[in-house]
Structures are given as structure tokens and as C-alpha cells.
Amino acid sequence: MTRRAALALASLLAGCAERRATVARPPSPSPDAGAAATGRACLPAGTFVRGAAGRRRRDERDPRTVAVGAFCIDRTLVTRAEFARFVAATGHVTDAERRGFGIESVEGMLDWEWRRAPHASWRRPFTTEDADTRSFLRDDAPVVMVSWHDASAFCAWRRGRLPTEDEWEYAMRAGSQGTRFPWGDRLTDERGRARINRWEGASHARNDRGDGYVYVSPVRAFAPNPWGLYDPAGNVWQWTADAYLTGDAGVGSERVLRGGSWWCAACTCEGYGLWYRGHTEARAAFSNNGFRCAYDAAERE
Amino acid sequence: MRPRGLALALSLLAACTKSPPRAPRLAPEPVAAPRAIAPAPTAVVDAGAAVDAAPPPAAPGPWASAWTDPAAVARLAADCNFRPPPDPETDEGSPLLCATDIEQQSCSYDPCHENVDLPCRRGCGRSCTSCDARCRGACGRCRASCHDEACVRACAASCGQCLQGCLTEKDRCLTAGCTARYQACFHRSVLHFRNGPCLASCTRCGDACPEGDENHHRCLSRCLIRERACTAEEREHCAWDGQAYGRDYLEELDAGVDASP
Predict the structure, then answer these.
(1) Is A40:A72 a contact under the CB 8 Å cutoff?
(2) pLDDT the model gives residue B199
(3) Nearest-CA distance from A41 to chain B in Å?
(4) For residue B241, which residues of chain A lie inside 8 Å, CB to CB?
(5) In this structure, are residues A179 and A185 in contact, taking their beta carbons and an 8 Å threshold?
């Protein structure tokens, strides 16, 4: 075995080494700073640079300027309490409830491991209840185990829709360019406090709880981006309206999710950040997938 | 080395072969049923959490969500070989069957992943099917020794736990198991490209076919085929990434930074 191969194997076995953060860029001003108290942020039309040179994943490369029209977007992820009101009002049955299972990953499982969780749904998105999994049950926790269909139905009920991928990244970037987060590339603030909810630990066997959470965090637990939008990365993956296309496969049944989640660690998907593109089946209900809604600019609160 | 580390190392070394891979071993022993899915533990209340008091009434679900559900156990008590039909409304396969995969949550797209994924999935499915057959065989043997209904029900309950264990193992195989194979495949692919004859060919052809030219890809493809130094997969790497394919990955590994693809 060559030295390089040995190093590679050792590194793969070592698991989640931390990536080095680079210097942060100063944020851009909020386009609607006066509306910070409302549940939605209404953003003017604008452009941003999507993709980053040097990204290993092919569909995250090739920086290009993208134009986005004016639109509004929820400041926070949709909470469990909000989703409960929707279900009470409409009688909506989620895909997980219809199918009889959600998909979960919990502390102690292998890296990348997921399993079907019989009877789990947004109401109780786990099979084993303990002090950590009870974080899913908070009123202000992001709703999870909702499929793309469920998320779309909720947003339609609110006279909104899921954001497109471009809208999502434009809003979450808040004027930043080329950085992993809207505030730069660092995972912590100047006092060393975590800025996002992600998986911290050498493996999924144990979460070091450095950010204070094992699973989901309340939707306003961390500071927002410069445009007042919470959880621009981490906590839960966020459904977008867009289908995921690979090569010449054309339109499929997968949809794109953005932002990364509490499950994402350096050793697994590493997807917490603004350029990562997650994707899964539209019907899938994972315990780390949630959403927020967008609204046409004319559809204000 | 801990058993898990050893298992992962072996998995990484196994890499991606063209022949159907051996799926991770699933089988619970036929007689001793595997442990049931997570038992419902006592709730531990987090005093600081604002827990939702009462979500709306639960919606009606399918007839059974797990083999350990009473409805499923009752069917097994009547017939060890009972298999639920597809959902009549959606035609979706039952989540209680090995043939039904849980969805995967992928963060990236890579041809290596695609190449590994399908054979790995098949291997996991075959292992689950074998596991399923062993559970049902054990169920039949158990029933044969019964003299009353209570005994039959106990056999069915044990069979349900066994079958559910097969599904949990399959999920682990499909997610953690196949990803380990994918990572090993990516690593091998990079080493092969960067240490093999294709790299020089890719560099030469890249120089001969300027980027930005509308015929770049056609020119590159013809050049690489003419030179015969690259496999079809390597030609694709060269077309997508040029001669830089895998370079950052190896540099990050050398620097000790995790570089999982």
C-alpha cells in the first residue's frame, strides 16, 4: 500500500475531521430591514452567483449569475405548531401517515445509516422517545417527516408555494458571494458559539452536542442571516419546488433540497451550506427534512 | 481495531467490483428471532422543552406498519407465508416486503455512486429475501410443534420480530453499507485515474481541444478514444473534470482533512 493510499484509508476510517473555515466576507444590508418583525421577508429582484469553482460535486460547479424576481419568503422554517394548524384545518394526511412509516436516523447508528420507522410521522418523528428526540415535539421545532407533496400542500394552503432553488439560495445568501454561509465560511461566531445546527462528532455513534442540539433546534435558536432569515443552513434540509435532474435522465420524481441538516456531519453528507444540493424522492419523509414557503411579491401578509 | 472499524476497513478494501457484490450479512438465525424493533421506552421529559400538547387526531394509516403490529402478527398466525399486497390505491409495494426499498437521501451525484448503487441494492435485496425465507421457515417449524392457539400466536409474534429485523438490516445495508462501497469506489477511481496512463492522455487531449470551443467535448472524446489510454469511466472523468479529477480529494487526504465525496 502506498503512503498516499494508506493516508487515504486512514482518513476515511477516521471519520469526521473538521474542515478549516476561511475568512468571512462582510454581509450585505437587508433589503427590508424595517419588516424584521413580520413572518415573511419580501425581497427585491436581484442577482446572485450560483455554484462555486472547485467544488468536487459536478452539479455545484460552474459559477454563473442568476437573476431572481421579487418574492417573499418565510423568515423561519415551518414549525410543528403551524403544520398542526394546517392539518386541523384541512384534514391533510401526510405521505408518511398514508404509507405507515417515516425514515429516521438516530444517535448511535452507523454513518449514513437510515431506517424505516414504523408509525412515525410528523406527529412523532421517531421510534424511541428520550430527552433528545423530544426536541422534535416542541411547538417551535421545524416540522419534519413531511414529503415534498405535504410541503407543497401546506404552502398552497397559505396561498404560497415552495421556493425555487434559485429563490432559496438568493434569499439565504443575503448578498454574500462564494462563501459557504451568508456570513462567510466559519461555523462559529466571534465568541466561538455555533452558528448552525449540524452533527458534531467523530461519527454518528455520538453527537458531541457542541451546538446544543442532537436533532432539530427551535426555528429561531440561531442568529438569522443579514436579511433576517433563520436557519439558512443546518437544522433541516429544505424542500424546494425544483425537480432534481441528473445528466440526461430528464425530469424524475426526485426533488431538490437545500441547506443541510442536523444530521449532516463532516464525515457524512457535509451538506450544511449554501451550495450543496440534496435530493430525494418527492414522497419521502425523513426526520431531517422540512421546508419554508415562498410567496409571489403581490401576496403579502 | 474495534469490530466496526474492522468491518468498515474491509468494506473499503472490497471496493467496487463489476461482479455482483456480496451484500453485508443479514441473517438472523432461523430459530432465534432477532431483537424486535426499538421497544417503546419510558419517556424522559425535557423540562425546558415547549412540547406540543396535542396535535390533531391521528389520520388512519395502513393496516399494518410493521411485522410486529397486531394485525400483521394475526396474519402470520394464520399463514407463515403471508405477504401483504401492494397498496390498492397507489400500487406501491408494501413497506413490509424486502422488495420495497426505503428512499435514499443523497447529497451528491457521481457516476461512481450510480455504478455501485444498483448492484449494491440488489445484494441487499437478496440478503433480505434470504433472511425473510429463514424467518418463515422457522415460523413453520415453530407452528408444527404447537398444540394450542397461544403457541401459534407466540410463533407468529416471533416470526414478526424476525421479519422486521430483516427489514431493519436491509435498510442498514442500503444506506450505511452501500455508501461505504460508494466511498471505496470513488477512492479507487481517483487513484486509478491519477496513477494510471489516462492522466497523461487526458492532459494531452485537453491541450489539443481548447475549452470554450463549441467542438470541445467532441474533440476531447475523439482524442481520448484514439489514444486508448482511458477506460470509458475515465473518459467521463476527463470530460467533466479535466486532468484535475480527484486532485483536490487526494490533497485533502494528504492534509488530513476529511474528504468524503
Answers:
(1) yes
(2) 96
(3) 26
(4) 58
(5) yes
- A 149-208 residues inside an 8 A Cβ radius of B: none
Q: Which amino acid is at A70?
A: A
CA distance A147 to A291: 10
Q: Which of A116, A200, A220 to mutate to test the interface with B (most CBs of B within 10 A)?
A: A116
B201 pLDDT higher than 90: yes
Q: Which domains does chain A have, with CATH numbers?
A: 38-296 (3.90.1580.10)
| Residue A105, phi then psi, degrees to nearest 5 | -135, 135
Please check whether residue B212 touches A, CB under 8 A: no
Higher pLDDT, A22 or A173: A173
The C-alpha cell that represents B207 in the structure block: 491541450
Q: CA of A101: which chain B residue's CA is closest?
A: B65
Q: Residue A56 has what pLDDT?
A: 66
Residue closest to A214 by CA, chosen among A203, A200, A224, A202: A200
So what's the ipTM on this one? 0.83
**CA A70 vs CA A67, A257, B133: distances in Å:** 10, 21, 58
Cell of A41: 421577508
What pLDDT was estimated at residue B110? 59
Contacts of A50 (CB under 8 A, 6+ apart): A63, A64, A65, A66, A166, A169, A275
State pLDDT tens for residues B93-129: 899 999 998 998 875 545 566 677 778 989 999 999 9
